[in-house]
Amino acid sequence: MVRFYTLQENRFQVHTLDKIEGKETLKDVLWVDLLQPTKEEIERVEAMFGVDVPDKFEREEIELSSRYWENNDTITINSYFFISFFFVKDAKGHYNESVGFVIKENTLFTIRDSELRTFDTVHKMVSQSQKEFASGYEIFMQIFDIRIDQDADLLEYASRESDEIRKKLLLESDVKSTETLKKIATLQEFTLKIRQGVFDKRRILTSMAKSSKPPQAIKEDLFIMMRDINSLVEFIAMNDSTLENLQNLFLAQTGIEQNKIIKLFTVANVVLMPPTLIASIYGMNFHFMPELGWTVGYPLSLGIMMLSGVIPLLYFKNRGWL
Q1: Host H or E run for residue 260
Q2: pTM of the predicted model as reported, rounded to 2 decimal places
Q3: How many other C-beta atoms lie within 10 A of the C-beta of residue 158?
Q4: pLDDT tens column, 162-215
Q5: All domains of the chain, ordered by start, with CATH?
Q6: Which SS3 state, helix, strand or coil, does residue 79 take?
Q7: Quick one: which of 140, 81, 79, 142 has its CA closest to 105?
Q8: For the purposes of burial, counting CB atoms within 10 Å of the CB of 81, is it exposed (0-12), middle (13-18) or buried (19 or more)?
Q9: Cβ atoms of residues 194 and 82 within 8 Å
Q10: H runs (alpha helix) in 36-135
Q11: Which helix (H) or strand (E) holds 2?
Q12: Side-chain half-sphere CA neighbours of 182 within 13 A
């Protein structure tokens, strides 16, 4: 699907590819959004505007030179947008969707393979004229600004979940080990993917701020956004440290519980060892064993076995081991 947003008489209008192709309104197009486009749709857009739209392979390249580059009249950007099954029902995990941006003169081109809440928000803003946009640069900045705010919300969510896990570890003694470890590992992966996207956006905005193509007003906004991203980087570092401490706390508590179990078995083994030894001796049934003929032999052996078991218990209790 391809949508064209044109600015005519200070109002935005939305057009489809078939309705806008060949019209003079192309000069008024500020934003071309390609969602899961076919190869034919991409070729038609490229022919109409004389622009190269990055394909899926180019968008997923991880080298810095593949994330941001310029030529004479365009800026091409590939940026990560985080998707999580915590908030997207159809998501199969936590992953970063690579979204392509091309800014040529006054027009922004975006290409993506997934529905993204960020773009839905900007579509509503543009369609309902909630904010005036004079260029493709301003739409690009709005997309990034909303995405940064959403990343901040995701990090706050991870922080709240980390606090809940900490409370359970400290206050509840029957925390299920498997579920807790899985939750910590999931939050670590969650934070890692967000960090990857935030660092990617910081590199892109830094490169864009050094470019001579964006207007001065856009550059001023870039520096503001970079300060916001730097604050997110600090928050990510703090959250990483929190999750690492939680993992260490969880492992320490697991070790303590295992030590308690081992200690219990050790005490039981020590307590039962003397009675077992006595029972083994009198269970040998040699013919010349004087005690076999005693009238009190049986109750005496039972008493000795009981006493030999009670004495270690009292000793361990006195030492505070029980």
Answers
A1: helix 216-282
A2: 0.71
A3: 24
A4: 888 877 777 765 556 677 778 878 888 888 888 888 888 888 888 888 888 888
A5: 2-254 (3.30.460.20), 258-318 (1.20.58.340)
A6: strand
A7: 140
A8: buried
A9: yes
A10: 39-49, 56-59, 64-67, 117-127
A11: strand 2-8
A12: 5
